[in-house]
């Protein structure tokens, strides 16, 4: 869209996660710890023009924006063609 010539670009992404708890006790909890990106660009274009491309690419990236701006997640389930609520089957744990 910006008619910027980029001879070569490599993007490296590192994502870090952790998982703790027990599946059997239903205490499992996953968490994202962070994402790092590194982009190596080869281009004869002016740095100002390339900076504009990079800013637009990040602003228009669905994955980056979903991580930066928490997004509501709605889930629905069916079982054998009918509606299903897994929370209705939560075990009551007595102390």
Give short descriptive properties of this protein.
95 residues, two-stranded antiparallel ribbon, alpha+beta, 2 helices, 21% helix, elongated
Q: What does this protein structure show overall?
A:
The chain is α+β, with helices and mostly antiparallel strands and 95 residues long. It contains two helices and four strands. It has helices at residues 47-59, 62-68, and strands at 8-20, 29-42, 77-79, 82-84. The strands form two sheets. The chain has a two-stranded antiparallel sheet with strand order 1-2. It has a two-stranded antiparallel ribbon with strand order 3-4. Strand 3 and strand 4 form a beta hairpin. The N and C termini lie far apart (62 Å). The model has no long low-confidence stretch (mean pLDDT 93).
Give the helix tally: 2
Structural class: alpha+beta
Chain-averaged pLDDT: 93
**Unreliable residue runs:** none
Topology:
Elements lengths: L7 E13 L8 E14 L4 H13 L2 H7 L8 E3 L2 E3 L11
Antiparallel strand pairs: 1-2, 3-4
In brief:
It contains two helices and four strands, in the order ββααββ. With 95 residues, it is an alpha+beta fold. A hairpin with an 8-residue loop joins β1 and β2 (29-42).
């Amino acid at each position: 869209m910006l008619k910027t010539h980029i001879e070569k670009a490599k993007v490296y992404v590192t994502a870090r996660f952790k998982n703790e708890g027990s599946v059997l006790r239903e205490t499992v909890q996953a968490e994202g710890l962070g994402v790092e990106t590194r982009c190596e660009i080869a281009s004869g274009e002016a740095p100002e023009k390339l900076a504009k491309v990079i800013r637009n690419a990040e602003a228009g990236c669905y994955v980056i924006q979903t991580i930066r701006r928490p997004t509501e997640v709605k889930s629905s389930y069916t079982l054998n063609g009918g509606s299903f609520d897994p929370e209705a089957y939560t075990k009551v744990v007595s102390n």
